[in-house]
Amino acid sequence: MRPPAHAPAVTLTFDNGPDPDATPGVLDVLRRRGLRATFFVVGQHLADPARRALAQRAHAEGHWIGNHTFSHGGPLGDRQDRGHAVAEIGRTQDLIGELAHPDRLFRPVGGGGRLGRHLLSLEARDYLAAGGHTVVLWSAVPGDWRDPDGWPDHALEQCLAQPRPVLVLHDIAGGAMRHLDAVLGRMADAGIAFRQDFPAAGTPMRGGVAGAGLADIVTADGAGSLDPARPRPAA
Ligand SMILES: [Zn+2]
Asked: What is the distance in A from the centroid of ligand 1 to the CA of 56?
C-alpha cells in the first residue's frame, strides 16, 4: 500500500489496565516494534502487586503511566457528590507514585469513548488544575472492548482519516489485543508514523493550565473562572 501524501502520526494509548492477561502481550509487541505508548491505569488495580508489577515494567520500558481514575465507575461529570472526583483522581495518583509521568497525565472516563461535558465535574476540573495535571483526550476509538475481532479495520480507517490521531485501545481481558501486532504492522505499511507525545488539540489542560476546549468537557454549568474565554472573578 502506498503511503498517503501526508501520513498521519499516531499516539498509542492503552486504558483500563494493567491486566495480567492482556498487558504482558501488549508490552511484548511494543518492545519488539520499538514503540512507546501511554498506559492510563485504573487506580484500584495497582493495589494488586502483580498488576502493579506490570505498571512498573511498562514504566521501565519507556512507556508513560497516566491516571484513569480509581474505580472507573463512570464519567466524573455525571457525579456531583462532593469529594468524589478528588478521591478518584487523588488516590490513583498516590498509587501511581513514582511511576507517574512528570506532566501528571490524566484521562477522563468517557463512558463508551464519548467526548463531551460529562467528562469532568467542576470539582474534577479544579482539582486537576490545582494539581498541575495534563488532561489527555482521544480522537480514534475503534471499539476494541466491544468488538475484539472487528476493531482493527476501524482503527486503520480512523487513524488514516486525521493527521494526528490519539488512538485508544484497552489492555483488558477479552482477547482484542491479540490483533495488536498485525494492526501496528498494517499501520506502518500504510505510512503511519508513531509518536509518544500528545497533540495540543487533544490536551485541553496542560500542567494545570486551562487551554482551548476545556469548557467543552466540563459539566454544562462549568464555564467558570478557569475558562480562558471569560474574565476571572475579581476576588
Ligand atoms: Zn476507560
From this structure: 20
Active-site option among 68, 84, 170, 179 = 170
In the chain, the number of structural domains is 1
One-letter amino acid for residue 199 of the chain: P
Which domain, by its residues, includes 98? 9-217
CATH code at position 109: 3.20.20.370
The residue from 15, 103, 144, 171 that is catalytic is 15
Residue 6 Cα, ligand 1 centroid: separation in angstroms? Answer: 30
What is the reported pLDDT for 226?
A: 45
Active site residue 189: no
- Name the phi and psi angles at 40, rounded to 5: -95, 105
Q: What pTM does this model have? A: 0.92
Residue type, 221: D
Residues 139 and 198: beta-carbon distance below 8 Å: no
Active site residue 170: yes
Residue pLDDT, tens place only, 12-46:
999 999 999 999 999 999 999 999 999 999 999 99
